[in-house]
Amino acid sequence: MSSAFVADLESLKSERLSGILAAGRLSLDGDAGGDPSALLQVALANEIGVSELAAVWMPTTAEVDVKIAFARQAGDEANHFNLVGARLSALGIDVAAWTPPPDNPLFAYMKSLTTTVERIAAGLVTLESLAYGVNENFMALCAARGDHETVRIYREYIQPDERAHQQLGQALLAKYATTEAEQAAARDTVLRVLEIAAAARAKAASRLGTACFPGC
Ligand SMILES: [Fe+2]
Ligand SMILES: [Fe+2]
Hints:
mainly alpha, binds fe (ii) ion, globular, Heme Oxygenase, Chain A
């Protein structure tokens, strides 16, 4: 049963995700460093990165419902980019002069995925869960610093979309990962994404001075 498979995959994912999220909460408990506008610029880079990833996948995905899911996601993430950009502008950062960084190892890996099942597992299912979890930590940091406007933007606009992307991913995975080989590929992809993400986030955390920074 593919729905039982998705449920199993969800528990595996949550278990692996908990280490990454615990690192963020630890930063929160300590005297969290991290310049607020630098952290929001991480969000800007992630939002445009995921928008581009979904856009790249869209024309080379045959299944129409997955194709449309990627197209809608590309638009949602572009909207998140604009929301975060507007917040940065309000904080005095010139977003027009901002340029996206080159692909990090996570985006490079994701772009290398060619099958629909791997793309759903990596992008919608895993990256979106990671985003939702790390954004919750980031919102707690913003709230502790009194930046309630950033919290409101995440609460009202960004987080509901990230959750919807993740739920859509679960439904599409249940539909398309029906063979044992596809389910094994999905499982491997989830684990690989979280492994690369954990390493990339640890590296970024030492640069930013906190593990409490947003996702996409
Ligand atoms: Fe998303
Ligand atoms: Fe997003």
